[in-house]
Amino acid sequence: MGISGTAPRITTGKLWHAGRIFFGAWFVYAGAEYFLPQFEQPLGEAQAAHDFTVALIGSGLFAVVKAVEFVVGVLMLANRFVPATLVINMPISIGVAYWNFVLEHGAIAVAFGVVCLGLNLALMWPFRKLYLPFLVWKV
Hints:
6 helices, 139 residues
């Protein structure tokens, strides 16, 4: 990346952009629904999922997560800072996958976890050469 802020040319196709738009729209909705009174935040049907979500809400961390989700979604839809945005979002995708794989049970929950984490990773793939310098073992 040069001083002008332009990224190296990364080839992404129509399918990648469709995934970016879907991911962005999903995260705008997921982030916004917590703050909008007409939507009720799903807490989970399994007791562990419910307790975990209630604890996050009670601690105030859930509002931070939802704000980050919203910003991530907007940046993805605007196609701005995408490589950094995907890295910033990875802990949230891991948390969503954990919630769906471990705390909430059922095929739909597992599908949501797979799509969230899988899409985050798939969207990161074209930028892997940008990420490699960060994987320095020792400095």
